[in-house]
Specification:
261 residues; mainly alpha; 10 helices; 84% helix
């Protein structure tokens, strides 16, 4: 049975410190010039192309499940007129950013980790550093900004498709009234809810890109190491997303009081 040495016990702390330092390097790289605009456009287009269709397809069952669950619960209290507002709140505040982040991490983040990991094991990153080129500024910063931009737009897509899917399922399967569903949108929802959803999507996209870039640039052990880095980046991103989502939601509810019907 292997004993737990002090070095092994402190290994997670060291890994967290290295990741935090990497994030600070990425933050500094955002303000360094020249900015790799062409790389940014290419990465944004690639990430959008691999995530837009799955995101739209995932948004439909998200909205449908929320509408069915919320509609059934509210119907027990005799408040069917608030089904639309409750569904919009659930989609805009939580389902939209979470679904966007999961797709960004699963599709875009894994591609980023695989690309940078392959460059690492081919020693391309070391060659760039020998030539005086900062890999973080040249490769990581454009990918982080691209993920953040695409996440914001995908969050809007998820919100629209999710609300539309909830409307269809509520009207067709729960005998809801179309006019009441649409009229109740502003009963409980408010504009800060939309800004909160956009802020979450922006932060989630940044986290997914930074984690994927960190794991990719620290991959080792050949192709197997690259595969392990991709898997680890997705798992770590999912864990961080739920923690950060809880923190941001708690702060939001402290700053913005809920709207009463």
């Amino acid at each position: 049975m292997a004993t737990l040495t002090p070095a092994r016990a402190l290994a997670p702390v060291g890994a967290a410190g290295k990741f935090f330092a990497f994030g600070l390097d990425v933050g500094r790289g955002l303000f360094r010039r020249p900015f790799q605009f062409r790389e940014f456009i290419q990465q944004a287009w690639f990430i959008a192309s691999v995530t837009i269709v799955p995101t739209a397809l995932v948004a439909i069952p998200f909205g449908a499940v929320i509408a069915l669950q919320v509609g059934g619960l509210i119907k027990q209290f005799g408040a069917q007129s608030f089904v639309g507002s409750a569904s919009v709140l659930a989609v805009v505040r939580e389902a939209g950013p979470i679904a966007t982040a999961l797709l960004i991490a699963g599709a875009g983040g894994s591609a980023i980790a695989a690309d940078l990991g392959a460059r690492k094991i081919r020693e391309e990153l070391d060659a760039m550093m020998v030539l005086g080129i900062d890999p973080i500024q040249r490769l990581v910063v454009p990918r982080v900004l691209a993920c953040m931009l695409v996440s914001v737009f995908l969050n809007g897509l998820v919100s629209v498709v999710g609300v539309a899917g909830g409307y269809v399922f509520n009207v067709l399967m729960q005998d809801g009234t179309p006019g009441a569903y649409l009229a109740s949108f502003t009963a409980l929802a408010q504009l800060p809810d939309v800004w909160q959803g956009l802020a979450k999507a922006l932060v989630f996209g940044m986290i997914a890109a930074v984690v994927a870039s960190y794991k990719g640039m620290n991959a080792g052990g050949g192709p197997k190491g690259v595969g392990d880095a991709v898997n680890e980046s997705v798992v770590i991103t999912f864990m961080l997303l739920f923690v950060v989502n809880f923190v941001m939601s708690a702060i939001y509810f402290q700053l913005v009081p809920p709207k009463t019907g």
